[in-house]
Amino acid sequence: MxxxxxxxxxxxxxxxxxxxxxxxPAEWPWHHFGWAGLGDQPHDPAVRGLDDxxxxxxxxxxxxxxxxxxxxxxxxxxxxxxxxxxxVRRLVLCVTSGGVNMAGLGAADWRPAYRKSFPNAxxxxxxxxxxxxxxxxxxxxxxxLIWGDADPISPVAVGQHLEARIPNARLxxxxxxxxxxxxxxxxxxxxxxxRHLG
Length: 198
Hints:
Distance between the termini: 8 Å
Order of helices and strands: EHEHEHEHHEHEHH
Number of strands: 6
Structural class: alpha/beta
Radius of gyration: 15 Å
CATH architecture: 3-Layer(aba) Sandwich
Number of helices: 8
CATH superfamily: Alpha/Beta hydrolase fold, catalytic domain
Strand content: 15-25%
Largest sheet: 6 strands, parallel
């Protein structure tokens, strides 16, 4: 079994994926990332943007892994899957933007509420321009897309857009799920992940 690397979103907490991860087979190895300077995480001057976060993840990838990523973490995971396909066995993208034009697909701007919730978060997370489109057509890994149907930050239309563009992708929609669907519906999300990675 490949190691599973869990990547949170801009909330940055290494605990985000733990409720779902605990429901996966106990023998599956995993690692939970947290992002310095995001959410309530301590700052690290060496982490100045997505490039630095991607480098942190790649440093843990000496052999093929499974990437399970939420929101902003999904942008990082998609970039790695495109640039280093030999290191990504399977991919799970949960309510991510994946480098898609979010406004054009009806997404709400998350930045004001984020800054209100996390006033001490690193400036770059809300001042950076929107991620440019990624060539997701180049993702070779089998990809599971998990979306909630009540998510204003990453609407189902984004998941449908990615499903149409990623060659080997399948979209599952969780009724009533919002942007924290992996934390609020861990049983269902874990079952989807287990089926995809098993």
